């Protein structure tokens, strides 16, 4: 069975990462500000992981994995270099728990994507296991096609959309405006501010601008 992409809210979730190497580090960096807690279980951890251990939301159990480590865990990430341990963790993880198996993606129910982020915009890349290296290359290609200040334009779109949604404009006019924002993009910050000002006027006095 294949997998489909989702956006997921991990705010209240407790995550366990089994292993403390390069892959564990990559997962920790991605998830550390997104969840309630992360517990790394491994006799060794990278220097980068060690920097983030605060015993408040990020913990380190400096020992091999034990079955009781996953009681009350919402999301288990398997990232050890020991095949037997990886298989064992798969076997003891309840089926309803989110599971990422870094050594064999098919064994888990969650996979990670390489993601280009520009503020609220996220473009995920996944090759279905064909080539993580291709995913990395495409990431750099896509990165290069979005300037770093593209997030300002996306923020602008967000603000305009909220104004339009709450406005008393007719639905057709709302749709036309939302489409225009994308068909004729405004990247200049001053022009964006002016557009928002004019839009607010239009919303307050819908008839006077017709
Ligand atoms: C994009 C990136 C994001 C990330 O991981 O964060 C990513 N892998 C990266 C790198 C990478 N991965 C591997 C190599 C060695 C070369 C090679 O083997 O090709 C390198 C190169 C390197 O490290 O530079 C090997 C590998 N990867 C997976 C397996 C297991 C399997 O395929 O089943 C094995 C074999 C393990 C083994 O046998 O030893 C699985 C996954 N890797 C994925 C993503 C997901 C599928 C994405 C897709 O299909 O497009 C999935 C399912 C992730 C998951 O959910 O765990 C990240 C970019 C790194 C960066 O940007 O720094
Ligand atoms: N998904 C991916 O993107 C990807 C990329 C490369 C490798 N991998 C796979 O991910 C796994 C980890 O790769 P890595 O490069 O991070 O390895 P690594 O060698 O850097 O780290 C392995 C870690 O596992 C720990 N470990 C070993 N036995 C353990 C146990 N019993 N309990 C807890 N921790 C234990 C080690 O102490 C070490 O910290 C490997 O199986 C590799 O095949 C996945």
UniProtKB/TrEMBL annotation:
Pathway where this protein functions: Porphyrin-containing compound metabolism; siroheme biosynthesis; sirohydrochlorin from precorrin-2: step 1/1
Pfam family for this entry, one: NAD_binding_7
Query: Does this entry carry the keyword Lipid biosynthesis?
Result: no
- Cross-referenced SUPFAM superfamilies: NAD(P)-binding Rossmann-fold domains (SSF51735), Siroheme synthase middle domains-like (SSF75615)
Name the chemical reaction catalysed here. Answer: precorrin-2 + NAD(+) = sirohydrochlorin + NADH + 2 H(+)
Keywords for the protein's UniProt record, in alphabetical order: NAD, Oxidoreductase, Porphyrin biosynthesis
What EC numbers are recorded for this enzyme? 1.3.1.76
Coiled-coil ranges from the UniProt annotation: none
| Keyword RNA-binding on entry | no
**NCBIfam families given for it?**
cysG_Nterm, PRK06718.1
Protein name, entry field:
precorrin-2 dehydrogenase
């Amino acid at each position: 069975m294949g997998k489909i992409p989702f956006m997921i809210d991990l705010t209240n979730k407790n995550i366990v990462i089994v292993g403390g190497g390069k892959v564990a580090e990559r997962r920790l960096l991605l998830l550390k500000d997104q969840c309630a807690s992360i517990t790394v279980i491994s006799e060794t951890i990278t220097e980068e992981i060690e920097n983030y251990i605060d015993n408040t939301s990020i913990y380190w159990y400096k020992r091999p994995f034990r079955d009781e480590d996953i009681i009350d865990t919402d999301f288990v990430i398997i990232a050890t270099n020991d095949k037997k341990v990886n298989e064992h963790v798969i076997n003891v993880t309840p089926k309803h728990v989110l599971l990422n198996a870094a050594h064999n993606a098919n064994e888990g129910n969650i996979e990670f994507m390489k993601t280009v982020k520009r503020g609220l915009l996220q473009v995920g890349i996944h090759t279905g296991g064909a080539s993580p290296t291709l995913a990395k290359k495409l990431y750099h290609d896509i990165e290069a096609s979005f300037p770093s200040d593209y997030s300002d334009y996306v923020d602008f779109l967000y603000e305009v959309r909220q104004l339009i949604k709450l406005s008393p404009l007719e639905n057709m006019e709302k749709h036309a405006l939302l489409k225009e924002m994308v068909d004729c993009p405004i990247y200049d910050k001053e022009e964006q501010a002016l557009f928002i000002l004019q839009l607010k006027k239009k919303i307050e006095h819908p008839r006077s601008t017709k």
